[in-house]
Amino acid sequence: MGVFGLDGLNIALTVCIPMWPQRWLGGLFSELYTRHERGLFTLAEVATVAGSTMRARVAVSRLRKMGLIYVFSAAERKKQYFLGDPILLPYLATGRVRNLDLIRQSRYARLIGLFSVEVGERIQKLSRVEGSGWTGQELDWLDGHEIYTHISILPLSKEEATRFPPILLDILEDGIPVVDDGTFLDIKGRLQPRLAEAGAKRVFLSPNEWYWDLAPGLAAGEVYAV
């Protein structure tokens, strides 16, 4: 259990995060972490701790919204779950990390860094993230469970981002900010109304292939700028 211990983890969950009024939920997470840590488990195993399948479903739903339990797979109608690291608790409690429940568990986000330094230094700073600390451990864990992924970086300055490079079209459409100082939402709030006014749309050729038609009503020879 590291520095928390069962009682300490339960207190952290029920005191540090005001969205959890019931101590039973913190106790359940603590017991699950004691038994499984980062290992995989099923709803039936949650039910053995919760006391019933219905209570287990409620607990899983609430913990997923808090970003502390994730769906690993759903093969043959049987979902496997794994727990988030308790080290996330201070970040979840203060709101510095949010929206984890909105991210599809099978998808992994692009890391966007907005810097004022030169592009080479930006790439260097972001590139260090993938192999460092908890990030490297998490990627190793995924690799060990046959999920082969990596962090994709987009090192823009704020000025470059406000010029709306084409890559931002997909990011603003699908992107869910997890850590944001307001810059991402500001850019999204300025670009999306312009795209909506022009009638811009994403046209799918297949589930994994598409293109953007930025101005469907544009006549031949007309120029349109985002």
Structural topology:
Blueprint: H1 5-15, H2 23-36, E1 41-42, H3 43-50, H4 53-65, E2 69-73, E3 80-83, H5 89-94, E4 111-114, H6 119-130, H7 133-144, E5 153-156, H8 158-162, H9 167-174, H10 183-198, E6 201-206, E7 209-213
Parallel strand pairs: 4-5
Antiparallel strand pairs: 1-3, 2-3, 6-7
Helix pairs in contact: 1-2, 3-4
Description:
The chain is built from ten helices and seven strands. It has a three-stranded antiparallel β-sheet. It has a two-stranded parallel sheet with strand order 4-5. The termini are far apart. It has helices at 5-15, 23-36, 43-50, 53-65, 89-94, 119-130, 133-144, 158-162, 167-174, 183-198, and strands at 41-42, 69-73, 80-83, 111-114, 153-156, 201-206, 209-213. The protein is an alpha+beta fold. The chain is elongated, with a radius of gyration of 21 Å. It has three domains: 5-102, Arc Repressor Mutant, subunit A; 108-163; 166-226, no CATH class. Helix 1 (5-15) crosses helix 2 (23-36) and helix 3 packs across helix 4 (53-65). The model is unreliable at 106-112 (pLDDT under 50).
